[in-house]
Amino acid sequence: GHNLSAEFIVNYLNDKYFLVAEENDQIIGAIYGEPLKAGGAVIWILAVADNKLGQGVGSALLKAFEDNACSDGRKWTVLYAPAKSADSVKFYKKHGYYIGQGYLECAKDL
Questions:
Q1: How many CB atoms within 10 Å of residue 45?
Q2: Left, alpha or beta for 39 (phi > 0: left; psi -120 to 50: alpha)?
């Protein structure tokens, strides 16, 4: 992958759909998505530092993203996660997402 420049982030990413979790001036998680024309939002990336897994960082980022999408008039979200990851399946089910086949397509009405 490539590192995103500050200029790219400021000029391209919407601050409602690109959120970062920080602790002691260090990034410990991030979520990125975008609104869709069909009234929903897609989540492209949800990442949490390995040493912060299971501590609520991902849940907080997901909730903040969903809240922002809802306040922006979005009615649902969709994301894709690897189906072979039992932790991913458990996490998204816990948050009310419907689980698809093969590669997870997770959708939720807001």
A1: 10
A2: left
| Cβ pair 107, 98 in contact under 8 A | yes
**Joined tokens for residue 36:** 């869709």
Do residues 82 and 45 touch, judged by C-beta distance below 8 A? Answer: no
Residue with tokens 């990851």: 85
Taking only the tens place, the pLDDT of each residue in 68-88 is: 999 999 999 999 887 778 888
Are 26 and 52 within 8 A, CB to CB? no
Write the pLDDT tens digit of every residue in 41-54: 999 999 999 999 99
User: Tokens in use for 78?
Assistant: 């969709």
Can you give the length of the chain in residues? Answer: 110
Q: Which residues have a Cβ under 8 Å from the Cβ of 36 and sit 6 or more positions away?
A: 42, 74, 78
Residue type, 19: L
For residue 60, give the 3-state DSSP assignment.
Answer: helix
